[in-house]
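In response to a reviewer's request, we include the raw inputs and outputs for one of the modeled complexes. The four entities were modeled together in a single run.
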Amino acid sequence: MSSTFGKFLTITTFGESHGPAVGMILDGCPPGIPLDDATVQRDLDRRRPGQSAVTTQRQEPDRVEILSGVFEGITTGASIAMMVRSVDARPKDYSTLKDVFRPGHADLTYWKKYGVRDHRGSGRASGRETVARVAAGSVARRLLEREGCRVQAYTVQVGDLVATERDLAAAEQNPVRCPDRAVAGEMERAILEARDAGDSLGGVVEVQATGVPAGLGDPVMDKLEASLAAALMSIGAVKGFEVGEGFAAARLRGSQMNDPMTSRGFASNHAGGILGGISTGEPIVCRVAVKAPSSIAVAQRTVDVTGGERELTVEGRHDPCLCPRVVPVVEAMTCLVLADALIRQRAIEPWRPGPA
Amino acid sequence: MSSTFGKFLTITTFGESHGPAVGMILDGCPPGIPLDDATVQRDLDRRRPGQSAVTTQRQEPDRVEILSGVFEGITTGASIAMMVRSVDARPKDYSTLKDVFRPGHADLTYWKKYGVRDHRGSGRASGRETVARVAAGSVARRLLEREGCRVQAYTVQVGDLVATERDLAAAEQNPVRCPDRAVAGEMERAILEARDAGDSLGGVVEVQATGVPAGLGDPVMDKLEASLAAALMSIGAVKGFEVGEGFAAARLRGSQMNDPMTSRGFASNHAGGILGGISTGEPIVCRVAVKAPSSIAVAQRTVDVTGGERELTVEGRHDPCLCPRVVPVVEAMTCLVLADALIRQRAIEPWRPGPA
Amino acid sequence: MSSTFGKFLTITTFGESHGPAVGMILDGCPPGIPLDDATVQRDLDRRRPGQSAVTTQRQEPDRVEILSGVFEGITTGASIAMMVRSVDARPKDYSTLKDVFRPGHADLTYWKKYGVRDHRGSGRASGRETVARVAAGSVARRLLEREGCRVQAYTVQVGDLVATERDLAAAEQNPVRCPDRAVAGEMERAILEARDAGDSLGGVVEVQATGVPAGLGDPVMDKLEASLAAALMSIGAVKGFEVGEGFAAARLRGSQMNDPMTSRGFASNHAGGILGGISTGEPIVCRVAVKAPSSIAVAQRTVDVTGGERELTVEGRHDPCLCPRVVPVVEAMTCLVLADALIRQRAIEPWRPGPA
Amino acid sequence: MSSTFGKFLTITTFGESHGPAVGMILDGCPPGIPLDDATVQRDLDRRRPGQSAVTTQRQEPDRVEILSGVFEGITTGASIAMMVRSVDARPKDYSTLKDVFRPGHADLTYWKKYGVRDHRGSGRASGRETVARVAAGSVARRLLEREGCRVQAYTVQVGDLVATERDLAAAEQNPVRCPDRAVAGEMERAILEARDAGDSLGGVVEVQATGVPAGLGDPVMDKLEASLAAALMSIGAVKGFEVGEGFAAARLRGSQMNDPMTSRGFASNHAGGILGGISTGEPIVCRVAVKAPSSIAVAQRTVDVTGGERELTVEGRHDPCLCPRVVPVVEAMTCLVLADALIRQRAIEPWRPGPA
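The model returned the following structure tokens for the whole complex.
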């Protein structure tokens, strides 16, 4: 069950970096949601490698095929399977990594857990698995759009460079996906510089969901922020999650943190759109910390399967900074969480007393 | 299912702030774990209100009763129910809050979600629900101890005050539960000062788990950090979660972030004990951001159920800073996640090929 | 998770035969369902021991207490806990069974599974656990009633005696709960005769649900009949389940089994109200085979914990036939399944295309 | 989540009768289980259409492709995806069924539930979905074999013809898969006769699992018989389930039904290998009632989507009796349930007190 996420709307993924295909089954999707290959493809293209100089140069067309659950252009209520065949797999690139554990990667831990490891690329731990998430997120996004919800993620920090503007339209117009035009160029240069040094950079991705109705999220254990945290922390390389003020809340007094309410709604949104695990109707704002890619071309100390010490330089075509390509994955997971919460809320509403 | 957490070892809680009792059922606990009321009571006493000047003065003895699942001093494999009766409930304290939504609380969102609201205290959204978590965590802790794992949480930030030392033995010797003796006193004074001003303070709680074997955690969706994030973000007032370097990782280069491996183990622990969703064998280190309590005695703008604007001052006995009492809850949830992961890992080990 | 049933509306039970209490948490119940102790008590009283000569003479008042989830007479959407304290527990009755495995009981299998066993009564395997199911079913029944659904179970076979009439009003007017007045008296006499011989009788219980809207049940794995089967087969002593024609369907040709459809609905109901895992709108009709109680006063061959052979006569106050007391449990589980399916169907309906 | 089955070892299926592919993801499989295409193919071939005169003449090679989770011939612990492409799909065969509901099929109920329906074949309700189950069952079977468990199903009744012998080796040597050589031929003739009359026959399939260790199955809600019932009742056309004596238990007295225990084990197996939801170590024996196929060539009364009455004769290539092809599906689902239970039992054993 470790490859499944969601309670009512559930995604289950499969596939390894250099296996024949990656894909997923999305179960619990309501009927009547318009869906076709082209729509999903558009979302996948935003995640695709090789989009710009700041991403890996590995080329994968990532052509999606819808295998089930859609008939005459709409979902039927049946489980939806989608698959992407691998094309640019070069397993021989990885034969040198058969017996050695790359620092920062999951090589050692998979070995410790399973006693066996698909060493081609990162196997099951590869970021390639997120193809499946983006495909599923595409369905969830369609469902949310019908209810007027919109989800967008963007890069707000790369290394020490921090965006201050939130010009969301601008975010998709630069390769870093930064909503601050002034900083975007600097970020791009910093990434290229790190890449040229054989090194890599971390960053922060923010996601904003607008048009989310009040009432989504299920206390006590399935608080909306808990589901979002689980969803986003399950993305490889993510080391932190926060909602609203997040860690900055530690420095605020109650009188500063509490959002006053007026007859026209909330006067501020320090909470980030969630109170007590339930959406307030304000925009939901979350951020994730993304570590620098572990595959770097500088020499590192490590060990092999026999425990012997080795010096390792990871060759190959790797992302110098993950943020630009994590953006669509963060959106996908956010869409899945919100769509799940929306469906669950619809389930109890027919019995709900009081004002609608 | 919104009150349930865990996949194999599952806790389901019940109870409202001013209802007759709070409690839980823990299902999936293996047989043979020693357990009695006194052991659980010790853990509950660390969470109890009224422990010191920096916590609420509300008095609740919080006497636990084990209702099932234990026979002759050990768990039997049956579901374990525990309950704590309410004693110091004063529902009349809350009649003035019947029609008004307190800022920062879940009052409004429960109303929007359910169309009905138990307005006594915070009803189901009350921190009192964490009694149930601590009781369950006590069982999980016993199980982990038998495997040599130890889990401790402590306060590392209150407002602007940040602990730099990690003297874990010291943490339980001051009311703030701070592992930095030098800062602990300052934190205590800051909390009392905020309380006297009718205000409240936020902070950061860190948790460390040592003796955790490598191999725990289930990729891809049930990564150990994702489960920990969900568990800890489901605690009321928590606004952020991070593991290892967390948000600081955004500023590190790959060559700084990657932990080198040597024949004697990892040379550093920037990862916080988890790689690819699986424990490395190094200490697991996480932090949560805790917002300042929303119940403050300063006047705030809000609305009532008719949408009319109101000025509200929240009376009553409230915590001026949640960190000291969140500490045992963070420990409990961490124990539940790790015990669940440990049991799941045991499930697959009999078939595991390769070296043990 | 082994004590939990349901996907959206989930019941988790606790308690052993001679422990301090039995009870449950029902999670996922929508808000706004009227509920009070007296309503639940009425349902529990139908299950209570000591109702007539054909049931065990053990006396348990089985007073229910609602611990959470209800405020001012209606459910709030929070998890609902209910508990019944044990009163007539006589643990010493069972000390003689400490080291011996009773034939037909779960004594041996619990021992094999857990290596430890609560030997007082049947411990966790006791029929007393069904108190919790009936309490939860009472909530589900209230929810179904609001939608016009009605669920009734009744005894249709005891030993060789088979009811042919289905006078449902009559069923609650005789101690056997048989809807065939002519046969009810014979069944009663047969049970008393078996009891006097120190033996016990099996039987069949049927359940009928009317007013169930078409569309409930989720293909493929959560077919309505699969959920009903799991629910009813989880009741102790149940050895078989069938829906509609059930095992009689094996002898029917397709042309006999298929229910013709007319403009006024189905012309027959061989299917038992379910096609392809989804309700048709016709009455749902299921039956369960109930084995004779294993606790009998005739000498039986068995073994003790050391493997030594023993002859055993089970003393104490036991049901000579389980059917009359299984009836309310079958109703409760059926109500839980249907309410769960109803809530899940409500979840997807807002997006449903086509005619309502 | 309606296409998912299992708690620890979970299968999620996808695919419609005339869609591009059917398949599944099996999650939770331990590492180290040998697996290759050829092994799975052997199991699929036993389910394939067109095997003999008593099955449908539709031809599907049903070539399986393993997409993930296997590396160098063994499972890795990652989710295992397998897929079978459709080849002999003839969607135009079904255009006449676009607006009419076939009696006995799920056409009407899918329409009522979803408001949309894939009318090609039976869409998602097609028996073709069981390809995915057999593929998953093949993995579970490999796991069970390593522990010495063996699962075999066979036809014990067709219409009025009942097998009395249980010569399991014989079962795979006749097209009906009947373990009674004397009756097998009669069954075959009866099926062909019904087919020639444009009609179809029901039957009963029995499954036997030997070598199952004592202790599998999780009380209270996840009793082994409840999981088996859910698994087998989720197979299309199955109308009843029983274990051990099943419905015959209704006629037995306690003194007849209880299996005596001796120092050499159980003296009989009326229980069918399960007591209190947990395996006893004796063979597990279950039976399912299989209704006659609904697709028959005789004229039937039905309605169309506008409610108008129609007379319908279902054309095409259909199974005249499902039993022979249900046999491998029953085996697959039984294997999945037992493997799940086995893995779960392994999870708690390390803490189990007492004798092993």
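As requested, we also summarize the result in words. DSSP finds eight helices and 18 strands in chain C. The two ends of chain C are 37 Å apart (CA to CA).
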